[in-house]
Amino acid sequence: MSSTPFQALACPLDGEPLSVVENTWRCPAGHSFDIAKQGYVNLLPVQQKRSTDPGDSKAMVAARQRFLNAGHYQAVANAVSNAVLSHSDHEAVCNERLSCLDAGCGEGYYLRQLANAAPSEQALSLMGLDISKWAVLNAAKQDDNQAPQSSWVVGSNAHLPVQTATLDSVLCMFGFPVYSEFARVLKTGGMLLQVEAGPHHLRELREIIYPSLKEERPNEREAPDGFAHLQSEPLSYPITLEGKAPIADLLSMTPHFYRASAEGRVRAEALEALTLTVDVRMVQWLRI
């Protein structure tokens, strides 16, 4: 396995290519962005922020790291890695460096799993981007600062700091897709892989924290502009959480923590064990 940081970054202020000089990314107009000592770069200008500290909090990121590292979503990670690598085989790029962006990477779990799953002959060029500085900081700290596997970037899906048509794959894991930007940065024939909650995802937890559950939206939808539908696959399996700590981590890492009523959170906090369903939809879109 050979994984290196993705380099085709773009200035978030004018869209021009960035080049790295020592520990700073610069564009031809002179805009510069320092690489933090932990190895990440902040390409989220203040004018693109909706708050002073957007995205997941430090506590949410830590909860997600503990939960994912415990292996509860390993099957999801395996399916994601297989989809990305299988598409690269189909596109006959196995002897080339395969570039992949995780748009909303959190603490980098799925990119690390992809790097570990790639065969030795498949070179990777990886980038993780998240609007949360705490998530990107956490991801960068888990990488090897001397030989990093990925570029780690604070940025927004609405204004991806990526040069046009430079990526083979984009991941959007339970995130907020901006299809126009995904279409812009993907090469023709590239793949957008969306992983989103299925109708029964974490249903047992939701039944505890909400007085009633909303009706699920239909699965079928039209292809976004610039894309054709490749395939959609469901993935569902049970997990059991033993003890209050992993249950609290699961609740804390999801939007349900803020959407649930105080009474619902109290009921969840009282649980000593919980068996629940992981149910996701994996949708592959082809850039045309």
Gyration radius, to the nearest Å? 19 Å
Secondary-structure element series:
EEEEEHHEHEHEEHEHEHHHE
Helix proportion: 25-40%
Which residue ranges are poorly predicted, with pLDDT under 50 across at least 5 consecutive positions? Answer: none
The major β-sheet equals:
9 strands, mixed
Query: Strand fraction band?
Result: 25-35%
Distance between the termini: 29 Å
Count of distinct strands: 12
Shape: globular
Q: Please identify the structural class as seen in this structure.
A: alpha/beta
The helix tally amounts to 9
Q: What is the average per-residue confidence, as pLDDT, rounded to a whole number?
A: 93
Could you explain how this protein is built, in words?
This protein has nine helices and twelve strands. α1 (58-69) packs across α7 (244-252) and α2 packs across α3. Strands 1, 5, 6, 7, 8, 9, 10, 11 and 12 form a nine-stranded mixed sheet that branches. A three-stranded antiparallel sheet has the order 2-3-4, with no helix packed on it. α4 links the parallel β7 (123-130) and β8 (150-154). The chain is 29% helix and 29% strand. The protein is globular and about 55 Å long. The chain is of the alpha/beta class and 288 residues long. The longest helix has 17 residues, at 74-90. The mean pLDDT is 93.
